[in-house]
Description:
The complex is a heterotrimer. By secondary structure, chain A is an alpha/beta fold. In chain A, 32% of the residues lie in helices and 19% in strands. Chain A is globular, with a radius of gyration of 29 Å. In chain B, helix 3 (59-70) crosses helix 7 (180-213), helix 4 (80-100) runs antiparallel to helix 5 and helix 4 (80-100) packs antiparallel against helix 14 (373-396).
Amino acid sequence: MNRRDFTKFLTTSSLLLGVSCHRPEIFHFTNxxxxxxxxxxxxxxxxxxxxxxxxxxxxxxxTYEKLPFRITGDKIxxxxxxxxxxxxxxxxxxxxxxxxxxxxxVNGKETSLNEALExxxxxxxxxxxxxxxxxxxxxxxxxxxxKFKISQIENFTDKIIFIxxxxxxxxSSQHQANYISLKKNLYLLNDITKATTIINFxxxxxxxxxxxxxxxxxxxxNRNLKIxxxxxxxxxxxxxxxxxxxxxLNDYLMFGLSFLKKLLQTSNQKNFYENFIDTFNGIELPxxxxxxxxxxxxxxxxxxxxxxxxxxxxxQVINLLLNFFSKINSPKSLKEKLISLDLQYxxxxxxxxxxxxxxxxxxxxxxxxxxxPYFYINSSLLKQVGEFSPENLITLSLYKSKLSENSGIFxxxxxxxxxxxxxxNLDKSVCSQQQIVLxxxxxxxxxxxxxxxxxxxxxxxxxxxxxxxxxxxxxxxFYNDTSELSENIRNGLFLTSAKSLEIEIxxxxxxxxxxxxxxxxEIISPTKNTLSIRIIPEQDTxxxxxxxxxxxxxxxxxxxxxxxxxxxxxxxQLAQEKEIINYSKIKILSGSNSTTLPCVVLANITIHSxxxxxxxxxxxxxxxxxxxxxxxNFDFLIPNISELTINCEIQPTNDKFEVAxxxxxxxxxxxxxxxxxxxxxxxxxxxxxxxPPGNKWTMIIxxxxxxxxxxxxxxCQIENNIPVVGKEQILQKRDLYWINVIQLKxxxxxxxxxxxxxQHCDYAPCESVCPVGATSHTTDGINxxxxxxxxxxxxxxxxxxxxxxxxxxKGAEDTHINFEPKMTNPFVTLRSxxxxxxxxxxxxxxxxxxTKSSLFGIKDFSVTTACQEICPVSAITFGxxxxxxxxxxxxxxxxVLLPNLNTLPNVFYKIEYENL
Amino acid sequence: MKIYNIKKKIIIASAVLxxxxxxxxxxxxxxxxxxWGIHKKVxxxxxIVNFVxxxxxxxxGTLISAILYLLRQEWRHPIHRIAETITIISIFIAAFFPxxxxxxxxxxxxxxxxxxxxxxxxNFKSPLIWDLIAIFTYxxxxxxxxxxxxxxxxxxxxxxxxxxxxxxxxxLSKFWSGSTVNWVEYRWTYNLFAGILTFVVVSVHSIVSFDxxxxxxxxxxxxxxPVYFVVGAIYSGLALLLFVSVIISIEEHISEHSRVNLSKLxxxxxxxxxxxxxxxxxxxxxxxxQNIKSLLSLRFDSSYLWMTIIMILQIFILPQFLWLKKIxxxxxxxxxxxxxxxxxxxxxxxxxxIPTLSYDLVVNExxxxxxxxxxxxxxxxxxxxxILSFCVIGKIIPMVPKSET
Amino acid sequence: xxxxxSKSIALILIFSLCFLNFFLLLNYLRNGIGFQPxxxxxFSHKLHSKYKIKCLFCxxxxxxxxxxxxxxxxxxxxxxxxxxxESPLIKSVITSYDSLILLSYQKVYDLPDYVxxxxxxxxxxxxxxxxxHGLVDQMDSLYQVRNxxxxxxxxxxKNPEKYLIPPRQISGIFYPSDTIFNLTNLQFFSSSLPSxxxxxxxxxPKKINKASVECSICHN
Lengths: 916, 405, 220
């Protein structure tokens, strides 16, 4: 039984342990010619329990088109919310990218997988014979099984060194800091459930963040969670936090210290406080804003401090101490925090890397195992790699990249959804990252399998197994009976937290005096004269790695609404003194290098230094070879991504640059007219309508909950086959989004986000004017649009006061062809050129549920729309009017858009003017 | 002799323009509306402006020939055929624009109430269907009226080719013998048609105005609009008529009297139009509606300000010079003023239609609209087609009636 | 008057009439009644229905899914593994079954892609196959008996009693014991259903109600 058969067997049989029980058997068709039939039975696989960064986040469904058409939140995960980070969505598209279907390359010639592997092992044995060193660069995967394997190899021979480098989202100036924060997050999980106040040091937990699902679930649960954010950039979290304090990058430490001082005072730690005073005397600390002080005094145990992983280690340590001293009364937490200071696994890898950088001559062969120094820009490492000849470079990666072009042997790797892996959770329980789809590329190999193969090759007395067997054998050790193991694996776990791998604690670690000294040494005098640009990795496409996902590229960025581009955001005061015009190109000089970038001036948002959303342009241009929205290249400006800033000069230039922006803002004083309760007689009219008013489909959007992540737009686009139109069309104001999110800036600087979709009015202005009756009203209150009848006289659009109807200028096929991957939902018709389209309340889902209920005689059925399904904070509720307008939520309490027009919308908004 | 050369040049230029317009129309038909300036908010571009504009121009004819005939105004006699010809041509042009502006023009026949396999009817609630009916009625009737008008003169038709001449004249002779009985019937029919058309001319443009006044958008949504449209239509139509008749009068004799009367009418209608124009602002003041306020202020916003100023100059201020007898009787000034009024009325249509479309009611912001080359070429193409076809018809049919009716 | 006698007037009248009826003419040409494509194997419904084989025996998906399947050769093999294996017609089926080469059929009733039609719904509401497909059990090879136009669908939705044929034995609707009821067909449904729903079948409706004529029922 070879590898491929085994994996097939593994994935198709639910009897064999190691397969999630949520997966039903693969459904076989009796008919081949079903492609145009429009029923849900076309689904080939129906997968769930899909892990991303150790978090079960989603169901995703595969159609006959071999592409996921729906990605939704997993309703059964322990956050009990449907949450899909954008980057997870991106990774799924990564899986389906056609670039991945490349054969292994040996010295420029394409070969089969086995030949390439043989070449590699021949090289390794040759090197071992000559006792030269071999370095294997790989991401720092926290997997016990791989740790075990690597240790086996390294015990056997000291010639092969595995250098694990932390992956991008934990990547920062100091790995140490990251590792602390990584460990610390465990306590974050425990503490934040109790926290009523969050003091956040520049952590954008509402964008891509390993704990994104957790935070948004918290936000949706209790509305009175107070968030105070100190940040040097402008993030979605800053927009949503109750108080946003803009500071410079250097000020984080000082603010942290002053918080620490305040805490030491309040939580009467005499000796610590004295220590603190005589360490930091002579250094004046900034004053804490008044509106935070009461929280520090009264609800100390309920306060929680957050810190950005990218910030320097001193800040991480301070954050740790802050959380520690705020909950000093619980000695248990002290012990736990001591655990978090364990750095063993990390420091080993760090030393290895340093060793390589110090004595590169000892090494002869470099193997890059899913690690690309061109992507995670690391100039020091790249310099060393440049000196090696291509014969001595071996690359295993998802795509062909700059690195693979320069290396002798290239083997395509498998996507992490294609293989089994065990990942250690933060509570020491080990979670199984499951194989969700069969590998597309038959020439690819998975990362753990490659390591297993090496170990089997090297050791003379190795049992040559398939790695899946080894994986299971490895975990059999921790179990008395296999039934418990299989039970665990069905639940997606290998080990329960009860049987956790123990780590011995050293109590010497917590020496507060030494920590204080360390902090004092870290204090940097703020450098005023040089201008520095802050670098932030692009959240949506994971710094360009998921650039193949055009939906994410077109999606307007959360706060500024910029789509397709990554401009440099400039504070208005800087723009004034440098005389920079908005939407113009600016010249950036750093040392000898220089480049021009488009800029956006942030007029009504205070930031102190310009910031730049980093995206690796190599990957970006690779995917957009067809019609290439060329992004300005600034990779070479960045010596090392681990450095947070580029020190440089800025010069204005005259040439303009059109930035495609999609955000619209509504003035605060207007909101009370535009979004107001229904006027009296119209509420009576509801009951006077012919159809029973309770029967109507209704949507309630909770504006107070909405965090403006734009995921509803994304879900709607994917669900309803809304084509990606490209930057040029958006610049011509021809975007096809069925949902627009408009912004509202409140008095205290907080942002409110109001999604606007088709209001499905009872007295719809668009219906009466359509010359051919292509849009009409159903008995259950849906304003339906019949695409096949529309002739495209845009009367309905002209008469729609909400501007939610869109005209299809190009036609779905024409637009889709330009982009890869092409994906369509088979249950929604692709609209042709020259017709009007709009939100349909996901009528295909309603029809499906209706069919089902009538087949099986179910009286009442409920429907969830795509936007409701994906909404992380569950701000959207959809259902029959009689069902969802229960209790206090009477029509009077709810607001509608433009009530004075008396169109009687069926989309209601929940917003309290007191909060504004 | 000189005039002939000018005429030739004009014909060539107009031919070029109209062919350009035709080509762009074909381009639009093949490649879709992507090439136009319209977008998600301003969904009706210049095409609809032209539609309203040309419908307006077509109104002069019926007014002159029908209403003035019923009022027994003798001075209409030399110019009534010009007016009717203008009507025919411009109504054809007007009908072309809504067709080409469809997203899927090849399905235009879904607008007609024809029995079909889907057993669906057009939505008779929609103003577009009313439009369709009104325009086709008007087109048909005014064509018959025009045909009736030219009947007595059919001997004077000029044809180069004797064969064709013989064919057509023999065909027309079936309708017209010139006997006294014939004349009696003719007068009777003419009266009848004039009576019918007097109602049609009022109804057509009011129905066109329903396209806008039936919607719930501010400024459009007002009962004043139909009258405003009719008045404006007649105004621009008269101006165009004056312009053309002055040009015709270079070659053939058109009495001073009728042109002077025309300019007097223009003066009158400039006041009517002014009244309704001011009425819009009165509504704003009286209703204190925020949307109407900000929408009307859009007209004086940076991008439309020049247009507004020019429009006011052309259609309200410039005609006031007609008070002076000298200017009223001077052909050059007549040319100048009438042409300006026609252009100004186009701007007036533009300012009535585009700002309302470009205004977002939810966030109170203007989304700008920039016409593309295709839009402009369609516009000028329609103008070219008008001139060309007028010249062609003018070559065949005597524009000034020979036999007095 | 003599103008009414003239040829030209008559010509004009005829022309205008033609123009008006042009689209009617088109619809007439679009009529698909009697459409009978050439099938690769000459399968006789008449012959099979003589042996009281229900429609839903072969087209088993029609009962549970929107798409009425053309049976696979496997279904043929249920009987023909033993029956009439010598006849040349059956031989071709057997060869396709062994060599896994598909026998492709020509579609007789073909709906456009933008039309959503669910067989299962119509069967469940007690509409016999013959309502749309005619008396297939008396045809040798299938041909179209109805002009499947939207007008016809809408008319039947509005007043069904005009068209309906009560469910017959031969079609096998509401006789689950007779059909092979393939549970796997229901598997997708079963994911979100109360337990025990699969076993219970709806009773035959006493009278057929008027169906909805909303656009979104068939076009979404």
